[in-house]
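Report of the visiting student (M.T.), summer placement. My assignment was to run the structure pipeline on a short list of targets and document each run. The first record concerns ATP synthase subunit s-like protein.
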Amino acid sequence: MNSSLSIILDRFTISACKNRHSAASIIRLYSERKSDLVNPNSSSTKEISKKDYEWRKSWTEETTHYFKTLRIFYTERNNVEVARWLQAPISFSPSSILNWLKNKEKQKDIIMQSYIPERNRILGNELAAAHFVVYRGGAVKFHSQDNWIKADENGEYSLPENYVRNDYLEAIDCSNMTLYYEGLQNLRNLQRVNWLSINGCENIDDWGLDHIVGSFYKTLFYLDLRNCPSITEKGLTALWKMENLKILYLDDILRTNEYEMTILMLQDHLPHLEIKVGDFAEDD
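After the run finished, the structure tokens were exported:
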């Protein structure tokens, strides 16, 4: 009897809370449920489903047109960002304002470098990557051409605006570009790139280098990693996959003991790899 009473009370509480009855309605509902104690097999007993124990959906998960419209102004990170902003100390010093402006500019650049599937569907992977690099101050070279393509002092450059069949990129020069990990997504699915330089790309770190290795480990034989302070020995360990890599440019192989040991292990695994150090090394 006690167990039956407990079950009835649980059902009563769930139903009352879910439907938000008034006090009079709750008393009347409880009186009706008391009859279940006399006849537990009564047909009036309601089966409790798993759905009755589920939490109410967040408004961001609603599928109606009204909520879909509001969803445009809301992201999953909003709650975290607002909480972080509320907990951070408020400072109106010139340095704090300058850092805030830099962070906003960085977020803008990251958004602008995001991968756009429509661009690749229209131009193809090779030409879309070429437009992405040249527009941001880099240079590219196709297998079918002898000259490098880059923008002039007015930011203008000559690249096809429609898909060109069987025209593959051979070399990509991203030297001194403001390039982020998100921008590397635009360099994927390139078939025959064998020359790549990210010299001076200070925002590329170990994760970015790992992405580069995953994209070009079959074709790349030249890689320039000079002036990339965010790349450590942890990122260099991914280079063991690049069996065709023949020339690697670095700043200083004696940066740390771990860095030097990683270089030695890399040379042992890739005996044909030539590592050149410093800015004074002559480019091939």
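The chain has two domains: 2-40+50-73, 108-277. The longest strand covers residues 169-173. I thank the supervising group for their guidance throughout the placement.
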